[in-house]
Amino acid sequence: MQRMLSLALAALVTVGHAASALADTSRPVAAQFSFTASDAAGKERTPAEFHLWRTADRVETDHDGRAEVWQRDTEGTRLTRVFHADSRMVEYSPGELKAMRIEPRWEALASMLDPADLSGLPAAGSTEVFGQVASIREGVIGEEQVTVWWIDALSIPARYERTGPNGRVRFTLESLADSAPSGWPLVSDAAWREYVRIDAADLGEMEDDAFVRKLQRMDAGSRFGHGHHGHEHR
Question: What is the per-residue pLDDT for 234?
Fold first, then answer.
């Protein structure tokens, strides 16, 4: 399920070039999404929850006991991957991410979908979600029917659905606030103090470590899958 969710998040809509007005990601957002998927035969996969917490220069996501914390500063964008069950963090500097060819647009990180790609989907009306106006965009991309309900004022989707020969994937906004409610699975101050922190540049020299071997298996086939053995990356 973790692999399925990671792949779904990476599969951003990639058509068209929208105006920059769609990409205001400066407003703080705490959003909870449900994730459902089915295969080509219609068999439903186990539903999942996904949390997004955003401020102007920080994006934190959480799913299934794992978190990603993206931060930007004068040096660029950096990432910390958090593995709660293992009490480990793996830290990627701007240079390491660039070497791995992982350079997502900040607007895409902060919005789950890249706002610059929405104009390729025809407008199909609007609706209201949690007191916010959401533009409805629908269209066909390749062999898939794509529907997005986009909250323009916050630059996040209220719904994102893809249906095609390989099945269906849907994200649905379940709750929305401007700050993380009590009890949200944010990375705690204690975790930042106490977890073992690993520089991603050192992973290639740690292949005898049980956690690193687990990480390599987990990342096989993903955007991180070529980042543990030097810098020969896709």
Answer: 34
Q: Where are the alpha helices (DSSP H) in the chain?
A: 2-10, 94-99, 106-111, 189-194, 210-219
> From CA 219, how far away is CA 157, in angstroms rounded?
27
C-alpha to C-alpha distance for 31 and 134, rounded to whole angstroms: 15
> Letter for the amino acid at 109?
L
62 CB burial (10 A radius; 0-12, 13-18, 19+): buried
Contacts of 40 (CB under 8 A, 6+ apart): 165, 166, 167
pTM: 0.83
Both tokens assigned to 76? 């660029």
Class of domain 2-219: mainly beta
What are the sequence ranges of the domains in the chain?
Answer: 2-219
The contacts of residue 38 (CB under 8 Å, 6+ apart) are 44, 45, 167, 168
CB 181 within 8 A of CB 31: no
50 and 68 in contact (C-beta within 8 Å)?
no
Q: How many CB atoms lie within 10 A of CB 48?
A: 18
The single-letter DSSP state of residue 20 is: G
> For each successive 10 residues of the chain (234 residues), what is the average pLDDT?
48 37 76 93 89 95 94 96 97 95 91 79 94 94 91 94 93 94 91 96 92 92 63 36
